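User: I'm new to structure prediction. If I give you an amino acid sequence, what do you actually give back? Let's try with this one:
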Amino acid sequence: MAVFIHTTASHTACGSTVTGTLSFSPTANSKQSVDEHQSVQFYSMDGFENDKSEQRIFDSFLAIVGQLIKEAGLSDTELSQTALMLGSTSLDIGTITPKTGSHIWIPKIDRLSQRLQKTFGLSQCHLVFNTACTASINALLYGKKLIEQAGYKNVIVVGCEFYNHLTVEGFHSLELISPDSLTPFHKDRKGLILGEGVCAVLLSTARPEKNYCYEVLDGYSGCDVSSLTMTAEDGSHINKVMQNAIRRSALQPDDINLVKVHGTATYNNDVSEHNALKTCFDHIPPVFALKQFVGHTLGACGAIEIALMDHMLGNPEVSEKSTKNYVESDYIMPLIDFDDSLKHYTNILINHCGFGGNNAAIVLRTNQL
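Assistant: Good question. You get back a string of structure tokens that encode the predicted 3D arrangement of the chain. For your 369 residues, that looks like this:
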């Protein structure tokens, strides 16, 4: 059964698909304080006041999911039969006030998905994925399984990550945040820069009525137990995950034309991912990354970056705007310039690595009318 990425909507540092065309700039658009004396670079949602209110989260959620539903033309009956998969790392933690009267208090992990389900009249099947940076990719993989095995015709996958002080200060304390720029696979890379964003992806058995779209072939997810916090630096587990994703898609590594890497620009991740790609492919296909335009949006990055790819597929001029000239000798693995539209690449491998060793990969096929 074919499963398509039917419609997408997003709001990131690149802009909002609700309000207009996205623009890609490899520069963080704000700074966030970590204490009284220091601040760090941050990719905030473009044009959206950065406060900690609950309303900010729900406003962005409702706008993006509402736009997706409108563009897809889903009826009330179809919505009632549409499942919701949500992937995030921090969810709404930045807005929560602990209940001091309770001896043990744990916030509801499904608070956001429940709000979306009730607002739009979606199916009672709404699940939350919280597997660090692979959360929304795992949500998308599970959504595909629901369509294939549970009779759903449509599944909405939401990826979200919102600014909160705990996350920013945590990554700062680990000395993982770059002081200036995010440069994946650069020999002198200095670390990641965090970002925020929300996106919605409609998976459907119906092919969208546009010239080009993505079909989700298959994928794979697994946990690397070699470390409590990270994946093996030799890339062995990432390689295993990518190989399984390709095999389940009924392809061979040589069939992959393009790889969308995780590309965090942290030392361990880039080395691990590079080693995995060298092992997986006899000759590494063209490689590109997107975090230099939106920051590392943690659990939302998988869905957000696929939504951006879908937007770029339908708007070739966006790819040209994101072009950056790379000096190959400066990189352990050079990234491609966007001289050509994404429509020229048929089989695309999407790779993501998660804190704690969860790794996931998925293969998309460019489908043409």
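You can read the tokens as a compact description of the fold. Here is one thing that stands out. Residues 213-368 form a domain with the Peroxisomal Thiolase; Chain A, domain 1 fold (CATH 3.40.47.10).
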